[in-house]
TrEMBL record:
It holds the Pfam family ADH_zinc_N. Keywords: Metal-binding, NAD, Oxidoreductase, Zinc. One of its GO terms (cellular component) is cytosol. Signal peptide: none annotated. InterPro entries: ADH-like_C (IPR013149), ADH-like_N (IPR013154), ADH_Zn_CS (IPR002328), ER (IPR020843), GroES-like_sf (IPR011032), MycoS_dep_FDH (IPR017816), NAD(P)-bd_dom_sf (IPR036291). Its EC number is 1.1.1.306. PANTHER family: ALCOHOL DEHYDROGENASE, ALCOHOL DEHYDROGENASE CLASS-3. Belongs to the zinc-containing alcohol dehydrogenase family. The keyword rRNA-binding does not apply. GO terms for molecular function: mycothiol-dependent formaldehyde dehydrogenase activity; S-(hydroxymethyl)glutathione dehydrogenase [NAD(P)+] activity; zinc ion binding. This is S-(Hydroxymethyl)mycothiol dehydrogenase. The keyword Cell membrane does not apply. The lineage of its organism: Bacteria, Bacillati, Actinomycetota, Actinomycetes, Mycobacteriales. Its cofactor is Zn(2+).
Length: 370
């Protein structure tokens, strides 16, 4: 292997073990690959899931994926970006050729692109990059279509979050849930993804936006910082009690859109019943593999509407990332408000602990480059 350079990065070597800072070898980019100098990368729950072996056991993993940076080198056939471009990385680099793309539904692309070569350790051990990106590293190697150009004047720590969790929540409300001006929405779970769904609904013009969580602190932030019009602390509430409280806020009907940003059977059941007849349920929280859902089939039939899963907020990076970057810069979408702390690369493990304690929406690694 012809090495491009050696850089420092954060890897997971075994399940439920602390991460390690080590030297990563970046190969020369293949024909359609690019090397990106990472400026900032958010610490996402998905990275923790990789570290703990909840996604696969194909260790070692190069963690990190919610990232923004500058293109430093390009392969011989790259046309999508150029050296010097400021980009947000994405894990849905659509192929344009699969059956979903040819049906005009690229958000469901079955054959997304990744770099043609693996990054490795110094001894040649191949690394699996988290979500095909691997961005807790000074530089990373990705496919050119994993790079979306946005305005170079934007804060990397803020716009990099569009690469995963914030886009997932925002898109769950706006794209999958198709929330409209004047409609009502309830979001169960006020973490980063749920808060982004609240902010997306506010941006779209929803007039009743209900944030539901068991943390008063999170609910206060949802109302004061992200646009919730009402909040409900659901701790200790039965499903029937929660339904009643939501109906009290919606003229007795329930919401037009209910977003489950937690991803548990009990929260999905709550979302199913707090909506209006013919309302839309959106599941964006990721369930564990062993979770099962049981609903009366007559209720599924009788309530009508739509039950949808939201993958990556049903986003199209080339359409959505530049648009939401512009809205952020105009002061119309609070991307920077999700950034609760800015940390160094060596602080990723501590950030996982902070995340598990529910203290932040996002910790963001800011890289120090000479």
């Amino acid at each position: 292997m012809s090495e491009y350079t050696r850089v420092q990065g954060i890897i997971a070597t075994e399940a439920n073990a602390p991460t390690t800072s080590t030297t990563i070898c970046i190969p020369e980019p293949g024909a359609n690959d690019v090397v990106v100098k990472i400026q900032a990368c958010g610490v996402c729950h998905t990275d923790l899931a990789y570290r703990d072996g909840d996604i696969s056991d194909n260790f070692p993993f190069l963690l990190g994926h919610e990232a923004a940076g500058v293109v430093e080198a390009v392969g011989s056939a790259v046309e999508h970006v150029a050296v010097g471009d400021f980009v947000v990385l994405n894990w849905r680099a659509v192929c344009g050729e699969c059956r979903a793309c040819k049906k005009g539904e690229p958000k469901y692309c079955f054959d997304t692109h990744n770099a043609s070569k693996p990054m490795t350790l110094e001894d040649g051990t191949k690394l699996e990059a988290a979500l095909g990106i691997g961005a807790f590293v000074e530089k990373t190697l990705v496919h050119e279509k994993q790079c979306t150009r946005v305005d170079a004047g934007a804060d990397p720590a803020a716009v990099g979050l569009l690469g995963c969790g914030i886009m997932a929540g925002l898109g769950a409300a706006v794209n999958t849930g198709a929330i409209q001006r004047g409609e009502s929405i309830a979001v169960i779970g006020a973490g980063g993804v749920g808060m982004a769904a609240v902010a997306g609904a506010a941006l779209a013009g929803a007039t009743t936006i209900i944030a539901i969580d068991i943390s008063d602190e999170k609910l206060t932030r949802a109302r004061e910082e992200f646009g919730a019009t009402h909040t409900i602390n659901s701790k200790g509430l039965s499903r029937e009690d929660l339904v009643e409280k939501v109906q009290e806020l919606t003229g007795g009907f329930g919401v037009d859109v209910a977003v489950d940003a937690v991803g548990r059977p009990e929260t999905y059941e709550q979302a199913f019943y707090i909506r209006d007849l013919a309302g839309r349920v959106v599941l964006v929280g990721v369930p564990a593999p062993d979770m099962k859902l049981k609903l009366p089939l007559l209720d599924v039939f009788g309530r009508g509407g739509a039950l949808k899963s939201s993958w990556y907020g049903d986003c199209l990076p080339e359409r959505d990332f530049p648009m939401y970057t512009a809205l952020f810069q105009q002061g119309r979408f609070p991307l920077d408000t999700f950034v609760d702390e800015r940390i160094g690369l060596h602080e990723v493990e501590q950030a996982f602990d902070t995340m598990k304690q529910g203290k932040v929406l996002r910790s963001v690694v800011e890289m120090e480059h000479p």
